[in-house]
Specification:
Blueprint (H helix, E strand, L loop, with lengths): L1 E9 L5 E9 L1 E4 L7 E3 L5 E9 L5 E5 L5 E7 L2 E4 L5 E4 L4 E4 L7 E5 L5 E8 L3
Parallel strand pairs: 1-10
Antiparallel strand pairs: 1-2, 3-4, 5-12, 6-11, 7-10, 7-12, 8-9, 8-11
């Protein structure tokens, strides 16, 4: 069993870039008497919190992420434009690992007609 997700990182020039990752899940996570589930570790989590953006939210100026995070979109849709101009949309159910904490950063926009909400998981610095 495999899982796919996008990453946003800063390259050696400080430019934000996207990459696609894939990870193998292995059997072993269990809550008896249920059968074991498949799992794979990403990174130690520091905290988890909700983040929301209204349709009028302004994130259109380049900015690096304040820290490493994982976003799971639970309502609405947003888009991110990396330094190289690549733009990706993140609808409900999408997962993004954000690691561009240095450099030029990225631009973010809520492209939904209503509020967009993500479940954010704060990760330890590398």
């Amino acid at each position: 069993m495999r899982v796919r997700y996008a990453t946003l990182f800063a390259n050696s020039d400080g430019a934000s870039c996207f990459d696609d990752k894939e990870c193998e899940l292995e059997v072993g996570f269990a809550a008896p008497p249920a059968e074991p589930l498949y799992a794979a570790k990403i990174s130690p989590a520091i905290d988890a919190f909700w983040m929301g953006a209204t349709p009028a939210w302004k994130g259109d100026m380049p900015h690096p992420a304040p820290r490493r995070m994982i976003f799971v979109t639970v309502q609405g849709e947003y888009q991110i434009t990396a330094t190289d101009g690549e733009t990706r949309k993140f609808p409900v159910g999408s997962v993004l690992l954000i690691e561009d904490t240095t450099g030029v950063g990225h631009m973010t926009k809520n492209i939904n007609a209503s509020d967009t909400i993500v479940l954010a998981v704060g990760l330890a610095a590398r």
